[in-house]
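Shall we go through a protein fold together, starting from nothing but its sequence? Label the sequence line and the structure token line clearly, so we can match residues to local backbone shapes. Would you write everything just below, so we can both look at the same thing?
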Amino acid sequence: MKPFLLLASRAQDAAAEEEYRAYLRFGGLAPEELQRIRMEAAPLPELDLQDYSGVIVGGSPFTSSDPPEHKSETQKRVESDLARLLDRIVAADFPFLGACYGVGTLGLHQGALIDRTYGEGLGGVTIKLTAEGVRDPLLAGLSERFTAFTGHKEACTVLPGHAVLLASSAACPVHMFRIKENLYATQFHPEVDADGLVTRIDTYRHAGYFPPERAEQLMADARKFTATEPMKILRNFTARYAR
């Protein structure tokens, strides 16, 4: 099998390693079946998409909709590298799954309005599939309503007309969408269980997602939720596109 490619951009090692292990576990992949590139560490090398079964973009501390003057040089480089790669991915309708940061990157690339109107705090939320979501093969086997973990400053306010809305929450109207047949983005985290969220709360307690003094309470609250349905998306993605 050709490996899947995980494009990561978390500079903090604890969060980066937890994320990689989660994609292995919930995607049903062995280490040799998931190649990871940490985009924050160096420019993206030249890639041949035909070397891979599909591309996954993990979550990120970057906020795509921030004004350019508020972005670090590393963020600008990562966004530029991703945009050039997405030119090729979208043109080829090559299997793509962007988790959380995928909404900002794929959404902006395709003309969506991404801003801070519908940000959600760190915690568990109820996701509801649309009629199109119920029929989509990547969501096969999921309940029409399920719990997922979120934590995002920005979200999609307006989808482009050619996108297909697949899932929403009460506070965020666009939680998952599809472009063409094989390009997907989720706002919720399909790779995060309660333990994973606790790691991220601890890692990003000073990143502006929440007041730092609330970290311990947020970690306790995270353990009250159980998220099992979102992970089926990762297994469906790897099973559908492995080649």
User: Anything to note?
Assistant: The chain has one domain: 4-241. The helical segments are 13-27, 73-92, 101-109, 131-135, 194-203, 215-222, 231-241. Residues 4-241 form a domain with the Rossmann fold fold (CATH 3.40.50.880). The longest strand covers residues 120-129.
